[in-house]
């Protein structure tokens, strides 16, 4: 176990590369700075062995016959997408100012406007795919500010940047865990909207198929949607190539049934999108690692 001083120093050391990238590109415009961080993360995924091995472990599970050259290209593209997304999350106010970059589709937006007018809440579910924060940006611009649920970071520097970015995207910023769940329920009952990324493993989840393999998956979102009679709506922000243009899709809500069936429908939906555009998903989540062992 790390001592307190060493842990503090280690957090600083881990933050230096990100701080350097964010500081070095300050003279550039917003899109240029986002692109710079994207190129940096893409370079890391392409050339740093530990990053390549972690990526290969996950991608070969789904694509066992993928050639090394193809994996290298895919890991670089994924890194570029995630680097841009990371910058945009950290600087959410500037990101939300670019409403002209968001291309909206799907029947869900009209449903959400109706829920807002009736004073009712909604649960929006997505994954670490494309630029998920574009969904909250569109909603906030239209007077439907949406709470964001995120996992608290152990590194104080990352936590500070992430919490600030989530709050800029829409308040309240809710952390995972018992306290965050209580705050989420209170927000929903008051007619608020909540956005949740459902593709992270959770210790209290159930093993359910995701991309063809069982993975720990939380049923909490579906349970809350049924209990409080609010829509469970899949939403996605898909980046157009390596650009700031994002297709924001508000799908029809998942039909109410039981938590497992509803959650599996979302898993299947996200899986299909990942298989179509694998460079848009963050493959480093260790999605299939069983935390109960």
From TrEMBL:
Keywords: Acyltransferase, Cell inner membrane, Cell membrane, Membrane, Transferase. Its main location: membrane. It is found in: Cell inner membrane. Signal peptide: none annotated. The keyword Transit peptide does not apply. The keyword Cell inner membrane applies. This is KDO2-lipid IV(A) lauroyltransferase. It comes from Shimia sagamensis.
